[in-house]
Design a protein that fits this description.
It is a single chain. The protein folds into two domains: 75 residues, Winged helix-like DNA-binding domain superfamily/Winged helix DNA-binding domain (Arc Repressor Mutant, subunit A), CATH 1.10.10.10; 165 residues, Rossmann fold (3-Layer(aba) Sandwich). 56% of the residues lie in helices and 8% in strands. The protein contains 14 helices and five strands.
């Protein structure tokens, strides 16, 4: 199935019925709204029946309208501007309880993330990271927060971690200058995908490094460049995407690596605890009594 549903729709318009063309025209003009409409709402907006919309999805090769709608959302999400996202958030939530709706959606995203990652792939990813000569970690925009967390924690486990500063395209490439065979680049990118990260991945790949991609789905631009892939669902929450599921995946990586390196980690934290005590970094519990 073509990951770019809009291109698929454009390509098939020549052989469509009059009703299907109306649906296509509406989607191409108002993709940001269509991606969050029920079949009946889309039919009403395009001036056709709900059954015509369902048949339209089937004609495009989908098992049903829900599968089509999911694919459409995945295709257009990276195209939405921040203003469009804010408008769509209001339409999706309406008068519902924001707290309950948002947290329930995040729980669903975590469940979906579990389902789309195989334990075998996850375990091989852990082995790749542990066995790497040097570990580069890169993420831009909101994904930089995920890269920060992973880098901070892996630095406590290894002395071979390089946190790539993604403030500019040239900065990314400069820090990857010495990357090569035996090294691993963990590239983290979610919509809207950063060109800086994509170019950094391409550079690292061309220089013999192994690429671990952490992203949202097969439509991501780093999929074809990655040797190993882990997926996390990050559907639209407002003007930004929810990073709850990606953060949970990052947590799982940290836990998995810490279990493989538990002896070295225990030694590191024993030294850290001594330093923290000597320099009074943290308050003692008794200080608050």
């Amino acid at each position: 199935m073509n990951n770019n549903i809009l291109s698929l729709i454009r390509a098939g318009m020549g052989s469509m019925s009059k009703g299907q063309k109306r649906i296509s025209e509406y989607i191409l003009l108002h993709y940001e709204k269509a991606a969050y409409m029920t079949a009946s709402k889309l039919g009403e907006a395009a001036g056709v029946s709900e059954s015509t919309v369902v048949r339209f999805a089937s004609e495009l090769g989908f098992e049903g309208y829900p599968e089509f709608l999911y694919a459409l959302r995945e295709s257009v999400r990276s195209m939405l501007t921040s203003v469009q996202r804010i408008e769509m958030t209001d339409e999706m939530i309406g008068d519902d309880d924001v707290l309950e709706r948002t947290l329930s959606a995040d729980m669903a995203r975590i469940k979906s993330t579990i389902e789309c990652n195989k334990t075998e792939d996850f375990d091989k990813t852990l082995d790749t990271i542990v066995g790497a000569r040097k570990i580069y970690i890169a993420g831009a925009g909101t994904s930089s927060m995920l890269a920060d967390m992973l880098s901070h924690n892996l630095t406590l486990v290894f002395d071979k971690v390089v946190h790539v500063d993604s403030s500019s395209e040239s900065t990314v490439l400069e820090q990857l200058l010495r990357i090569g065979e035996g090294d691993v680049l963990i590239a983290i990118t979610f919509p809207r995908y950063s060109k800086r990260i994509v170019k950094g991945v391409s550079f690292a790949k061309n220089h013999g490094a192994e690429i671990i991609g952490i992203t949202d789905g097969m439509g991501s631009p780093i999929v074809g460049l990655s040797d190993r892939l882990l997926f996390a669902k990050s559907d639209m929450a407002s003007f930004v995407d929810s990073l709850v599921a990606p953060l949970s995946l990052i947590n799982a990586l940290i836990v998995g690596i810490s279990r493989k390196k538990k002896d070295e980690l225990a030694e590191t934290f024993a030294k850290l605890e001594s330093v923290w005590d000597e320099y009074e970094i943290y308050n003692k519990e008794t200080d608050n009594v």
